[in-house]
Amino acid sequence: MGILGSIILVFLIVHLYNFFWRARFGTLDPDINKNDDLYKLVVSSFHQWWYVALYVAAQASLGYHLWHGFRSGFQTLGLNHRKYMPLIKNFGYAFAVLVSAGFASMPLYFYFLALQNLLPTSPLSHSTNLTTQ
Fold first, then answer.
1. What is the pLDDT of residue 93?
2. What predicted TM-score, i.e. pTM, was given to this entire model?
3. In whole angstroms, how far apart are CA 77 and each of 31, 44, 61, 86, 96?
4. HSE value, Cβ hemisphere, 13 Å, CA-based, for 70
5. Which of 43, 58, 94, 119 supports an S-S bond with 11, CB 3.0-4.6 Å?
6. What three-state secondary structure class fits 36?
């Protein structure tokens, strides 16, 4: 658990710096509505294979951490009956897989679209700007 916790901690530091810190305190290019272009920040971050690999590894670590924590939480509370533990373990496993797969899907999506040159330059590039009408 110490190694998984360390992976999650490194991921949190990198993630908060890359997205939160740069969005709040950095200078980002404006989009067509003169807002910070967070889409461009996400796309540029997930073009880098090492960042996608870190993100997916961190989500796998998070999944195992959630599965273990879910199971252990019930055991700590004394709710570890032979009849209910298989259901608790399976539900915890499904929860952990869904959460970690959901979080890992976004960087993988952007990375593979970038490999195929299918990413638009902005999310509104194929639609009409509704604020100017």
1. 95
2. 0.75
3. 50, 45, 24, 16, 20
4. 20
5. 58
6. strand
